[in-house]
Amino acid sequence: MLEQILETKRKEIETIILPPQNNVKRISLINALKHSKRKPALIAEVKKASPSKGVIRPNFEPIAIAKAYEEAGAAAISVLTDQRYFEGHRDYLIQVKQAVQVPILRKDFIIDRKQIEESVRIGADAVLLIGEALEVKKLYDLYEEAYEKGLECLVEVHERDTLERILTVFTPKLIGVNNRNLKTFQTSLDTTKEMARLLPKESLFVSESGISSYKEIQTVREYGADAILVGESLMKKENVLSAVRELFGEVNSFVDTP
Ligand SMILES: O=P(O)(O)OC[C@@H](O)[C@@H](O)c1c[nH]c2ccccc12
């Protein structure tokens, strides 16, 4: 699946027309995660569909969703911009960035410098770089390019090998462990557990995907996650504001009175 997505991306890159620079104030994702009141900090994702689940949220209003996430105390918002597989759009990111004060992560398959420039122009604060999608040298190149242009990077890994290869070249400031295997789409929090002990202690650590309950939040927190990235389980709920509070164990839908 990942290979197929990357193949589509390679073709798309040539067709990208760079939009004009959107006037924005850039905010640090890393700072926002570090100073979050919620622990672990929440990166809440704006995602209409995914290759594994199809359409998750038919009634998709990115601005309203983002505002609700912000109100619910999300430290940052992740916006899917891939059109083909996730029904996202770069315009959603432009709109969301203008509607909230928290930093925005561009969630896409970045494989070329042109996409970094595009991310700068649409107003992203950070971009995702996927370890399994890039050779280490290329990944480092894009990482440097992003930082030079004022963007931070979330470096995502799923496999131990990938992480080890990256760490021989550089230490990303922000590392995401994807609990989802992009080949099989299965998620397991054991991935977070196993990768945690290999992570450099100076890197901030995000556990990504497959988190849908308060118990799971506590589990990944015990494993050492500083932040979590959650999409589907929030997107499935009509009211995302209360969905966030429920996820963090703050509201009981039913309280049994004796
Ligand atoms: O919807 P979930 O299971 O809560 O996962 C969110 C996020 O981690 C997931 O969307 C994701 C993680 N890495 C990616 C890379 C590309 C696209 C999407 C992703």
UniProtKB/TrEMBL annotation:
Similarity section: Belongs to the TrpC family.
Catalytic activity: 1-(2-carboxyphenylamino)-1-deoxy-D-ribulose 5-phosphate + H(+) = (1S,2R)-1-C-(indol-3-yl)glycerol 3-phosphate + CO2 + H2O
Pathway: Amino-acid biosynthesis; L-tryptophan biosynthesis; L-tryptophan from chorismate: step 4/5
Source superkingdom: Bacteria
EC code(s) of this entry: 4.1.1.48
GO biological process terms on file: L-tryptophan biosynthetic process
InterPro entries: Aldolase_TIM, Indole-3-glycerol_P_synth, Indole-3-glycerol_P_synth_dom, Indole-3-GlycerolPSynthase_CS, RibuloseP-bd_barrel
Organism encoding this protein: [Anoxybacillus] calidus
Transmembrane portions of the chain: none
HAMAP family (alphabetical): IGPS_B
Pfam family, one: IGPS
Annotated protein name in UniProt: Indole-3-glycerol phosphate synthase
Domain Indole-3-glycerol phosphate synthase: 2-247
CDD domains, sorted: IGPS
Entry-linked NCBIfam families: PRK00278.2-2, PRK00278.2-4
Species lineage: Bacteria, Bacillati, Bacillota, Bacilli, Bacillales
